[in-house]
């Protein structure tokens, strides 16, 4: 997931379906997120960038730094100040739905049904040739390209369904705090634990008024229930965020060598390491852990108040915002000691 200086935000999820996933090296969903953000200044342009790259290079390859292959197709939630799109893929075929209102979420299943606003030109013909669609009944992308019963999609206990319920519960009154609360929810499976734990979380506020800045909150650490959502605003003069940047290994990086993944370097950044130790304290040392959790919650609330003031009263001197995120990281590190 990520955002760019034009207020374009993209989130990405793994999806599977009838089409076999390509194991050969191609573009990963994470590559497509980065390239969409690098090259587009609107949500729909980002969608176009992604589907053009998909057509030219395809998607596939191992998504884990491991000998164990983990491959998938991709879905994307793409938004800017004015509009939002859901893009879902199966191999090189894809469908896109423009979000016209209400709430929308994605998870580990195809979710676009009959409302298709843009599509791969051969999407329907390919489905017909495979015997997935008879060419007569209304075309339903999720039902055709996956094994999902779309009539029951929002009533199952899946992460998609649970996310949909939580968003609908707050529909019409969703704030950044609401979104953070949803991302912290463990019972729904949205905040994942174990082998596939939630490794980072992001919430973005995209005001329709172009005079107000887009504000992005990033944890940069796993388990949002024990993390600080730290504010970031794109302004000129921002330097590299060293304490939350993974170390680089240049030409010696194992991912750049053939065969791939022969060793696994430590990619944890400074905040990640300190947070990992702090999470153990929060889990095992009742008194000290509770105190630490309260301190990071107080820090987050203070930053939220500061950002609300910016959205209500306009932006202060942009020089004050250059170190907004990194100062919050320093304050968080200080709490971890």
Account of the 3D structure:
With 337 residues, the chain is α+β, with helices and mostly antiparallel strands. The protein has two domains: 2-174, no CATH class; 194-336, no CATH class. It has nine helices and nine strands. It has helices at 29-39, 43-57, 123-129, 141-145, 159-169, 176-183, 270-284, 286-313, 324-336, and strands at residues 2-3, 9-15, 73-79, 84-90, 93-99, 118-119, 202-205, 215-218, 230-232. A six-stranded antiparallel beta sheet has the order 1-2-3-4-5-6, with helices on one face. A three-stranded antiparallel beta sheet has the order 7-8-9. A hairpin with a 5-residue loop joins strand 1 and strand 2. Helix 7 (270-284) crosses helix 8 (286-313) and helix 8 (286-313) runs antiparallel to helix 9 (324-336). It is globular and about 60 Å long. The two termini are 29 Å apart. The model has no long low-confidence stretch (mean pLDDT 94).
Q: Distance between the terminal alpha carbons, to the nearest Å? A: 29 Å
Structural class of the secondary elements? alpha+beta
Q: How confident is the prediction overall: mean pLDDT?
A: 94
Helix content: 25-40%
Order of helices and strands: EEHHEEEEHHHHEEEHHH
Q: Give me the side-by-side strand order of the main sheet.
A: 1-2-3-4-5-6
Q: What general form does the structure show?
A: globular
Q: Supply Rg.
A: 21 Å
